[in-house]
Amino acid sequence: MIPKINPYNEKVTEVKELMKITNAEIENQLMEYMHGYGECFIRSQQVKYFEAFEKGLITLDDTVVPLKFGNKDSYINAIKFIASGRNEFYKILGRGVRAASEKYGGKDFAMQVAGLEMAGYHTGYGSLVGAAIGARHSHLCNGGYSIDQGLKTFDPAVMLDKLEHEEKERCMLNCLVLCLFARRVYDRPTILSALNTLDWNLTDGGLTEIALRVYKTKLRIKKALGFDLNNIRLPKRFFETPSMRGTLDEATAYEILEKYRERLSELTGSTEITEETV
Q1: Percent of the chain beyond pLDDT 70?
Q2: Which domains are assigned to the chain?
Q3: Are 134 and 167 in contact (CB under 8 A)?
Q4: What's the pLDDT tens digit per position in 130-151?
């Protein structure tokens, strides 16, 4: 018997909102199955690819069983089949919705950014662009959703400033192996006080240098692994479903990405991120 788990934001979002499950008992059962089979809750949006079944892009020959939104058995079977790699379709789906959409179609509704399924935030350009430019393409890289919530007026330059600053700061915070839920507690004076008690003799400028060095290292690694910002394609569903800030404009999103690419050139001294530029 898989033990009961405590639901929190991401789990509830993925199961209740995206899977269209409204029964609390069934929600908990699905969460237990995901835990038991090692499924990531955010990546569980692989089952969001059920829309491909509804649209006829995939058939029972691929899925083995019918895939229907809101149906508990559909999700349980999909979770099991993804975990076991039941057939070619589930092996590909196990690699994410981008891989599945490249093979079977549905790129406009396969909700991912740079290959990583979206988190449970559709708050505005900060969340969307933040996921695209984040080193890990996670909502935790730069907290774009929080920036959306805090900006009173939309200014692309200001938003990019905040995204870049927050990501660098989180690079430093992650080195401390702390929970980002507690990031407001660990402000710089507190961090310096704690570390210097242990004779680290760090300064505020030293923390900034560490943050920048880690950030640049991540960029170098991504470049070495073949990442190219120009290859990012944002699913059109992002621009069809209203965000907290209203319906987003696709052209604006790509314009912001281009502005970040220009900043990247200034940061590294080149549009090419290599060992020498970092």
Answers
A1: 86
A2: 9-110 (1.10.569.10), 125-268 (1.10.599.10)
A3: yes
A4: 999 999 999 999 999 999 999 9
Structure tokens given for 78: 């999909």
Q: Are 104 and 55 in contact (CB under 8 A)?
A: no
- Residue 65 CB burial class (10 angstroms; 0-12, 13-18, ≥19): middle
Phi-psi category of 245—alpha, beta or left, where left has phi over 0 and alpha has psi -120 to 50? alpha
Six token digits for residue 270:
């080149």
Q: Residue length, the chain?
A: 278
Q: How far apart are CA 167 and CA 113, in angstroms?
A: 17
The separation between CA 71 and the C-alpha centre of its own chain, rounded to angstroms, equals: 26
The closest of 189, 169, 165 to 180, measured between CA atoms, is: 169
Residue tagged 């970040």 (tokens)? 260
Under 8 Å between Cβ of 42 and 48: no
Residue corresponding to tokens 């089949």? 81
pLDDT at residue 7, rounded to an integer: 53
Q: What is the pTM of this model?
A: 0.86
**What is the reported pLDDT for 146?**
94
**CB distance 120 to 16 below 8 Å:** no
